[in-house]
Design goal:
The protein has about 300 residues and is an all-alpha fold. The chain has 13 helices and no strands. Helix 1 packs parallel to helix 12, helix 4 runs parallel beside helix 11 and helix 5 packs antiparallel against helix 6. The protein is globular, with a radius of gyration of 19 Å. The two termini are about 35 Å apart.
């Protein structure tokens, strides 16, 4: 099978299986709590139900509120297209595409923030303010991780590249075999970024209904119907994006068959969802002012990893 066909299969799998990740997380949390929990396919049922419903839109809102969910889904899908999937390079890859991937995710968040502010709700404005603050703190950490991955290639006698497809084209796996200390720091930082960017415990609780402590969920209180379905699906795709980043570092290219390698990467992504569920089961949500401390510590670890990489 050609690399392009493998990428297309992995992309279709990502689009279809992305809503499965929240279901796996919820099921793991339920098992830890001794409950039956929701079905693993619950998000699929919710999306189908929301797509059949009509949207209730306030008369005080403008076109910004209606366009926010659609633009958020579109930007998240484009960011996923830039990511190498299943060990195959993205057909849209180019030098510096990691910048586009990071900023286009930020653009989708920006549209959701605008939609929340457009409602005029004090609660949604509070959530939008928190979302903007924590995303601004997470952004430099993401760039430090990408630069470290780019430096791993040159350290392993590979051409240094600023493309996501090249960053995950074997350099992390070679670094694992060399027992490089900086490679052991990167998965921890990216896993924390996954929790922050996807508003998971200990950063945020996606299942809470207490407006004073909510971040992401409070921004979408006024959305309903297909608009809410787009937001939930975009969140699932974003979770798949960061899980694929983590899987790309942890899973080496060990299969000669591209399709088998793609299957191995998908299993690793599902394992990341299990790890998120375990993390949410054994940890409590931290206080809001401590989130900046967590991101600061993640930034220090990412900077240390980059320094160790450049010293090679």
């Amino acid at each position: 099978m050609s690399a392009f066909a493998t990428y297309c299969c992995s992309l279709i799998a990502a689009l279809v299986l992305a809503p499965l990740l929240p279901g796996i997380i919820n099921r793991v949390k339920a098992k830890y709590a001794g409950r039956q929990g929701k079905p693993v396919l619950q998000l699929y049922y919710d999306l189908a139900k929301l797509l059949r419903k009509g949207a209730v839109i306030s008369e005080t809102t403008t076109w910004v509120f209606a366009a926010g969910p659609t633009l958020s889904l579109a930007t998240t899908a484009v960011a996923l297209l830039l990511l190498p999937l299943g060990g195959a390079a993205s057909p849209l890859a180019f030098q510096g595409d990691f910048l586009l991937a990071a900023y286009i995710l930020g653009l989708g968040r920006f549209f959701l923030i605008l939609a929340a502010l457009d409602t005029g709700s004090a609660f949604e404005g509070m959530g939008a303010s928190r979302e903007a603050a924590y995303s601004a703190l997470a952004e430099p950490v993401i760039f430090l991780c990408f630069l470290c991955l780019a430096g791993l290639g040159s350290a392993e006698q590979m051409p240094m590249s600023l493309s996501l497809s090249s960053m995950f084209a074997g350099a992390p796996a070679l670094a694992w075999t060399g027992s490089r200390p900086e490679v052991f720091l990167l998965p921890l930082v990216i896993f924390l970024l996954l929790l922050v960017e996807n508003c998971r415990i200990p950063i945020d609780d996606p299942n809470t209904h207490l407006e004073l402590t909510m971040i992401h969920e409070v921004m979408i209180l006024d959305h309903s119907g297909p608009d809410l379905a787009f937001i939930h699906y975009a969140a699932a795709l974003k979770l798949w994006f960061f899980s694929a980043l983590l899987a790309g570092i942890l899973v080496p290219s060990v299969c000669a068959d591209p399709l088998a390698q793609a299957g191995l990467n998908i299993l690793a992504i599902l394992a990341v969802a299990v790890a998120v569920g375990v993390t949410e089961s054994v940890m409590a949500r931290v206080r809001l002012f401590r989130i900046s401390h967590l991101l600061g510590g993640a930034g220090m670890l990412a900077a240390l990893s980059l320094i160790l990489t450049l010293m090679r």
